Amino acid sequence: MKSSFKIGSIMGIPIKLHITFLLILPVFALVFATNPQPYGFADIGSTTKSYALSLLTTILLFGCILLHELGHSYMAKSYGVKIKDITLLLFGGVSSMEEIPRDPSQEFKMAFAGPLVSLIIGFGLLGLNILAVSSIPTYSTTPIYLMVGILASINIVLALFNLLPAFPMDGGRLLRAWYAKRMSYVKATHYAAYIGKMFAFLMAIVGLFSNPWLILIAFFVFMGASEEDKSTTVTVSLEKYRVADIMSKEVISVPPEMTVEELSHFMFENKHLGYPVIKGNSLKGIVTFTDIRNVLPHERYATLVSDVMTRNVISLPSGANAAEAFKIMTINNIGRVLVIDNENVTGILSRSDLMRSLMLLSE
């Protein structure tokens, strides 16, 4: 089951809605509908009118969050960074970028672009309300005035909150960019991640006595800081090596006519969870434990490897950078890549190979 689905594209970037967004949408609408002015519409006419205005405000709010993410993405694209997609989810939006530029000035501009968009929207809407009130005295008593005011305030708060130096939030990335001008990129990431974790800890404490949502946000900030710190360390460490230095040269393959039942026993005996599928000298695909796990036990005797294997094989040449292999595995959420030179399979590189090499290097 997919956790998100595409609703369109902007600037060539797929825009997706995560299932958590659909869950939080009515919650936000309920909050706006049950709070009085100036934070909601509880005292604006009928219940139907209050909920309709609340739902519209919620949709517009997430539209503003999308613009925030498009600010990041526009700046990233100007530096040649590929944007996989933008996903709206529980706590806002996330731009999935293939990589973050190592140039501190570029990362600084990319990180600041999102909050800048939110500030422009916030102060722009405030200015719109002020101009409208000066032209139409009764405008301040209308629901539109209240809606615009709510959106303006939230955008300004959103920008300021994102500027907190809690890595990997925007402010944390600004902090890393500042550190990276003064020390190595890995060390800058360590410092930014440490401060991000401290902010997460403080946020959780504040959440215990005020708003439980802060505890959940703190959890995501802490985990995000930890994961990005680890990912950066791995990537930078692997940049010193080629795929040929780490890959397994003894490639065990399976034929496409093997049954899934036979393959499951084969995996148990050989202690590997993925194999290239080769017939003669021709590569047909790759099959992994995930592929056979989706086949019911009583169907495995009649199901062939060719029925479940992945035909679109992701591969690299042996001369490629090991960090590139790690990035490809992460982006495609796979555990291994085949190493192919001159149309021949010369090795296989797994995530376990990369992690094992890093452990040995650290020793």
Please explain how this structure is put together.
With 363 residues, the protein is an alpha/beta fold. It has helices at residues 19-34, 47-78, 104-135, 143-162, 170-180, 185-209, 212-238, 243-246, 260-270, 289-293, 305-308, 322-332, 351-362; strands at 4-10, 13-18, 83-89, 92-97, 274-279, 282-288, 315-316, 336-341, 344-350. A hairpin with a 2-residue loop joins strand 1 (4-10) and strand 2 (13-18). The longest helix is centred in the first third of the chain and has 32 residues, at 47-78.
Write the layout of secondary structure elements.
Blueprint: E1 4-10, E2 13-18, H1 19-34, H2 47-78, E3 83-89, E4 92-97, H3 104-135, H4 143-162, H5 170-180, H6 185-209, H7 212-238, H8 243-246, H9 260-270, E5 274-279, E6 282-288, H10 289-293, H11 305-308, E7 315-316, H12 322-332, E8 336-341, E9 344-350, H13 351-362
Helix pairs in contact: 1-2, 2-3, 2-4, 3-4, 3-5, 5-6, 6-7, 7-12
Radius of gyration of CA atoms, rounded to a whole number: 25 Å
The total tally of domains equals: 2
> How many individual helices?
13
Question: Order of strands in the sheet with the most strands?
Answer: 1-2-3-4
Q: What letter string, H or E per element, gives the SSE order?
A: EEHHEEHHHHHHHEEHHEHEEH
Strand content: 5-15%
What is the end-to-end distance? Answer: 41 Å
- Strand runs, count: 9
**What percentage of residues falls in helices of 4 or more residues?**
55-70%
Low-confidence stretches: none
Q: Using the alpha-carbon principal axes, give the shape.
A: elongated
Main beta sheet strand tally, sense and closure: 4 strands, mixed
Q: Supply the helix-strand structural class.
A: alpha/beta
**Average pLDDT:** 89
